[in-house]
């Protein structure tokens, strides 16, 4: 279990004092005079550790820059935006009059031939006419309002998609930052472990150690190599995900993330819940759907009223006869049985939309409350780690190291203390990612921007 803990814990050991680690190696190397005579003492590099940017050959890219790029280039956001823009043209179509119909008539007398009897009968004529359907007053305006509410819903859905894409980008970015910042630590830890292994083997050859310590050091070295391979795999997967969200080509240059730092949430739970009611796009989309169904109910009532039709025709006869002029006005009576069924349908849909609105509001409010609890609890745990557990574990390890130097403690106990330091720091780093992820979810759900 300790060997697994050591290999896993190197993912988060950026806070460990490498001076202490070097002292640990030196202690193993110089545990006895015989060991010093037989082995060359391992040394810890004195040069500064390379930064993440140096390791990846590029400058870090801020999350805000990537968010702006995603909003401009993500194909899912672009598709949703164009769908909303298309819906804005529907109200004008819905409020327009039905198409005007033009007609040409030719009336023959005495024969089916064209213009038969045109010169000798006042019944033969060629006519030109136009007709127009006119909906009952108010119907066209209601249809336009229905289309406007649909466009409002599309706008809210576009905002929801944008926030979802940006939220996913933040999650991947936080994880990528964690992976990249700990990769160098993992590689340097492998170098340190190689020196530990050499020192342990030297102590064993001169009778200052035992074979079990040698085997444990070798096992930890192999575990580290396995973790490095796994680390590179996860980094590659995250790079592919983040390029997809940005709309970049997969063969483009990899992204280097900035160092993660803990942010402080400046809002109370009540503030965030109020922001949900005002700004959450999913809730706004459901509210627009309710308004749309209410307007449909108004239109269903209006559809009990008749529509109209007007026509006018000019009929031209031969020059020796008088022309004809005809105007007509028609009324289209609705089928009341069909309209009653339509009204019942839209009333049920109105009730359904209201219930969906209530359900969506409860879901989002509950999720915001949960994320708020996660963020505040995580904030407290980060303080416990940074002010309590991590420094306490380092102090415990230094005490174990002093005892080991005086031959009052075995190698296994010293290694256990070393593992505690590494594992607690791993938990701190993981908690930091959880904290930032919770804040990102709150930003997506409420529309606030946590500085």
Question: Helix and strand layout, with pairings?
Answer:
Layout: H1 2-9, H2 18-29, H3 33-38, H4 52-56, H5 63-73, H6 75-87, H7 90-95, E1 101-107, E2 125-134, H8 139-205, H9 211-246, H10 269-279, H11 281-302, E3 307-316, E4 324-332, H12 336-405, H13 411-446
Tell me the helix content.
55-70%
CATH class membership:
Mainly Alpha
From the alpha-carbon coordinates, what is the Rg to the nearest angstrom? 39 Å
Terminal-residue CA separation: 40 Å
Q: How many β-strand runs?
A: 4
- The strand line-up of the biggest sheet is 1-2-3-4
Describe, in plain words, how this protein is organized in 3D.
With 451 residues, this protein is an alpha+beta fold. The chain has one domain: Outer membrane efflux proteins (OEP) (Up-down Bundle), CATH 1.20.1600.10. The chain has a 4-stranded antiparallel beta sheet with strand order 1-2-3-4, with no helix packed on it. A hairpin with a 7-residue loop joins strand 3 and strand 4. Helix 8 packs antiparallel against helix 13. The N terminus is likely disordered.
């Amino acid at each position: 279990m300790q060997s697994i803990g050591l290999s896993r814990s190197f993912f988060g050991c950026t806070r460990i004092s490498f001076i202490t680690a070097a002292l640990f190696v030196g202690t193993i190397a110089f545990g006895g005079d015989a060991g010093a005579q037989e082995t060359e003492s391992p040394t810890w590099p004195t040069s500064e550790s390379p930064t993440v940017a140096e390791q990846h050959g590029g400058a870090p890219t801020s999350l805000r820059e990537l968010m702006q790029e995603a909003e401009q280039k993500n194909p899912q956001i672009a598709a949703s935006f164009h769908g909303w823009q298309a819906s804005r043209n529907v109200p004008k179509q819905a409020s327009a009059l039905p198409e005007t119909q033009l007609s040409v008539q030719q009336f023959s007398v005495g024969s089916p031939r064209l213009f038969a009897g045109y010169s000798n009968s006042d019944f033969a004529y060629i006519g030109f006419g136009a007709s127009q359907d006119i909906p009952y007053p108010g119907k066209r305006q209601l249809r336009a309002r229905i289309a406007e509410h649909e466009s409002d819903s599309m706008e809210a859905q576009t905002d929801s998609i944008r926030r979802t894409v940006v939220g996913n980008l933040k999650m991947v970015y936080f994880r990528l930052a964690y992976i990249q910042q700990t990769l160098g630590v993992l590689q340097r830890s492998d170098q340190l472990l190689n020196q530990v292994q050499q020192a342990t083997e030297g102590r064993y050859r001169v009778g200052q150690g035992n074979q079990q310590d040698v085997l444990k050091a070798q096992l930890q070295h192999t575990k580290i190599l396995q973790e490095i391979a796994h680390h590179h795999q996860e980094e590659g997967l995250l790079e592919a995900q983040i390029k997809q969200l940005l709309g970049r080509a997969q063969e483009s240059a990899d992204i280097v993330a900035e160092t993660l730092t803990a942010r402080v949430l400046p809002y109370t739970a009540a503030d965030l819940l109020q922001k949900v009611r005002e700004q959450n796009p999913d809730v706004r989309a459901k509210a627009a759907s309710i308004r749309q169904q209410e307007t449909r109910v108004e239109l269903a009532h209006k559809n009990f009223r008749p529509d109209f039709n007007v026509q006018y025709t000019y009929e031209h006869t031969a020059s020796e006869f008088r022309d004809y002029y005809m105007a007509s006005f028609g009324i289209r009576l609705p089928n009341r049985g069909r309209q009653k069924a339509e009204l019942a349908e839209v009333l049920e849909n109105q009730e359904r939309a209201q219930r969906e609105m209530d359900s969506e509001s409860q879901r989002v409010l509950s999720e915001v409350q949960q994320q708020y609890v996660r963020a505040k609890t995580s904030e407290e745990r980060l303080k416990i780690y940074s002010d309590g557990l991590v420094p306490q574990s380092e102090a415990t390890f230094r005490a174990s190291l002093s005892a080991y130097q005086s031959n009052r403690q075995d190698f296994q106990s010293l290694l256990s203390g070393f593992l505690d330091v590494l594992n607690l720091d791993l938990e701190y780093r993981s908690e930091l990612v959880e904290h930032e992820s919770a804040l990102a979810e709150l930003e997506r759900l409420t529309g606030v921007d946590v500085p």
